[in-house]
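Appendix B. Raw example, untouched.
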Amino acid sequence: MNISDIISGNASISPNGKAIVQGDSGRIITWLELEKMVNKLGNALTFLGVKRGDVVAIYLPNCPEFIITYFAAMKIGAIALPFNIIFKTGEISYIMNDSGAKVMVGASPELEQNVIQEREQFPGLEKIVTVGTPLKDAIDFNLLLAAASEKLEPAECSGDDVMSLVYTSGTSGKPKGAMLTHCNLMTMATYNMRILHINDQDLVYSAPPFCHIALLIAVLGPFCAGAGIVMLSHFNPEKALEVMSAYKATHVIGVPTMYIYMLNCFDSEKHDLTNLRLAFSAGGPMPPQYIEEIEEKFGLSFCEQYGLTETTSIVTYNRMGHRRIGSVGVPVCGIAVKVVDMDGNDLAPHHVGEILVKGPGNCKGYWKTPEATEKAFSGEWFRTGDLGTFDEDGYLYIVDRLKDMIVCSGYNVYPREVEDIIYANTKVSEVAVVGAEDPIRQEIPVAYVRLKDGQEMTEQELIDFCSARMASYKVPRRIIFVDEMPKGPTGKILKRELLAV
């Protein structure tokens, strides 16, 4: 088994078919061209000393070179380690040193500023390959490919071999590397292909950053079906609408924030989205009031899904034509999901508890951290740390993160419930509710709010709005208006940073 076989298979069936469209430049790469470049880089990495089981770091924006490097590493039996392009020296060095990566392929400007100029923080890094402007003490990506053979046999790997490390965000401490295997990726890519209703005639606009586990949905799922992808190096809502129109994209995959931004930019006179059939959302809950607007304006079906890095993305999803607003859908066939109490007992529908997952997507564990692996797993079940509940029909509803739950005067306050009510105010664009320490109540809810352009509102006005719609202990005691929300690579609001705002 080797997941790079997806590329070879598509190249043999449809050599001239579109594999990648780079929307920024209009560059198009066919399946045969992609296979040759993957093979060239695989041979080049081998020449640089990369062996089976070694870690290859990828520090690139969404671009063809990211995908080439990802598949080249896996084809020779190495382990791909994607980085967020916005990471700085300290964040990069911790993960590099923890993973033991000796080779990094990265974008020239970011490499020069955060790696090459701070080389002493990377004692184990032996080779740097640059994409873009050639840099001193680094190897040029294009020259490396030019000198390599385009023939390469894939390494024979078992399904249990680790092929990628994806580091968690580290909300409760240092980031941990989730070990994803060839079986994890191949199985879940197949699931995603079916869930997205993709075939080899489709073209998918893949918006999430590839450094995230969303790579599985945004790239591997389409590739598994023989479908091409269209990408932008960095998300821009106006440009996204333009490329979807120009290349007649059939699917769009993004995170809630991206869809909200695209809604604000959409102009039916300029943007032709008639070829779009399905919008798929991952990386966090979509405020319910936006879903019907997206479907109406874009003329498609909108589906939310729920998944985690440690489950190789997707766990539950809303099926086309069977969506329930507010729910993340039903479990994927072949994946078991249950909701349990603090003692691990299964809970009946409409009772809130922790969500546990069992299935072929569950990662092998955390890299070099057996104690964290043991804590995260209960036998074959992964403890997600998310709170949720099923309805009587088996649809899952995410209530909140277990660690985000606020305990106010002995009552449990679920921030998402409060956020959904605040989102119902037409002046509000974004909101995040967090718990702040309080000497009397233990914790109190605090709402950070970004208003829509041109709107004004007082703190008391929004508190009164909340008081009329929820129990008093849930009402935010403070409203803090902000111009921007701190966000992670997928556009998810970083609640842990808000209290410092």
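End of appendix B.
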